[in-house]
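Students often ask why we bother predicting the structure of a whole assembly rather than each chain alone. The short answer is interfaces. A chain on its own may look different once its partners are present, and contacts between molecules only exist in the joint model. In this exercise we take two input lines together and write out one structure for the complete complex. Read the inputs first and try to guess which parts will touch.
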Amino acid sequence: MKIIVDLNLCQDHGQCAIAAPAVFRMNDDGKLEYEEIAEESRRAEVEEAADVCPVQAILIEG
Amino acid sequence: MTTPHVVVVGASLGGLRAAEQLRARGFEGRVTVIGEERHLPYNRPPLSKEVLADAGDNDPGRLHGRVEFRRKASTADVDFALGVPVVGSDLARRELRLGTGERLRYDGLVLATGLRPRRLDLPGPVQGRHSLRTLDDCVGLRAELAGLTEPSVTGERTSVVVIGAGFIGCETAATLVKRGCDVTVVEPFGAPMERVLGSDLARAVQRHHERAGVRFVLGASPAAYVEDPTAPQRVRGLRLADGTVLDADLVVESVGSLCNTEWLDGNGLDLRDGVLADNDLRVVGAERVVVVGDVARFPNPLFDDVPRRVEHWSIPTETAKRAATTLLAELTGSAPDPLPFAPVPSFWSDQLDLRLQSFGSPGLADEARLVEGDLDRLADGVLLTYHRLGSHVGTIAVNLPPARQRELREEFLARTPAIPVSA
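Now the answer. The structure tokens for the assembled complex follow.
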């Protein structure tokens, strides 16, 4: 599946990195880094990350 | 038997997540979500922050577009009945009474009606009195701010009184002072957000707001709204119980919430503070009925066996998952979740240049410990842990790096003793 984060919306809350640490992480500068393509086996945690994003910046395609 | 029909009453975050979670668990029957508001589900936290901060376009449809939740493909066939209040119910007959006069039968029911702001019953004019929970509330407040900002060319700033120094009140005050308003917060009880933050952090946050220009009048009770002599029925000020009058072009009442449960009266449920549920979110005293979101009063074994409501944004999503599993087990005989339901409550609040992030339930604590940082330099980052009878029940971080959120949450979980949650 493809992951798109609207970086204009993202406020670096870091909740996605709690929900799906294999896909989203906050770097030492406090900014988001993420995998743009994730394995299908990670769908549940990626959906969880999208659900818990306080600004709803994460879009999953496919 | 035909496939069952699940009705979700309430079309905000909890109702939306409940519908999604029913589908995510393979439920193929009919799902109807009934909402009193006319809008499809949208995200409320920005209403006291980004959306209120912006003085631009006030078209309700376009503002809704900025905060609307994405519709998942799995819920494409969920029916949303919007602008329809549910006014009564007969749970023994599995029947709801709608504001349209219609009756609606269900096989399974999800309660997700949430809260509404408590309003003050004060004498005086009514124009200029606001509360802030719904998108329409926010549109009304923004419209009035836009109308009042025009005289500012004369150098006069819009005066706003915020009644209540809880989270919504403090976020609103911070946003409006940044918009150039003259803001006074009136709070009858302690320091801002003190019940959750504890007195040391609450006073530190107050000082931070004061340095940004927000004034606080603590320990004062509002007594009456004062009329504008040039505009009948329009607020010009707020009189306090001691006779002081505070200037106010508009007032925002943020004095807590009431549970939307009146429509459940007469069914023998415990509705003393929200809807009493067991640890699986099954409504006590009803069959095939579950409850989600901030109207659900349920025990969380992370802390103890006392049922409590939790008014955090994370709770609708967490409770919807468990409630969907519970309801489907009753409707279709699928497996219930054998583990105790023990969500980690979590909230954030953005105020001025501060971001407060919490894990656990600091409000239950009898003691707060400053672990890192200096309370007089909140923006540089502080960490407090909260304890009840010596047990760690919560953590609050202010302006700590997001990379540490995960570690802080895990530390909280590791230190929390209470009832074992792995069953």
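Check your guess against this: The radius of gyration of chain B is 23 Å.
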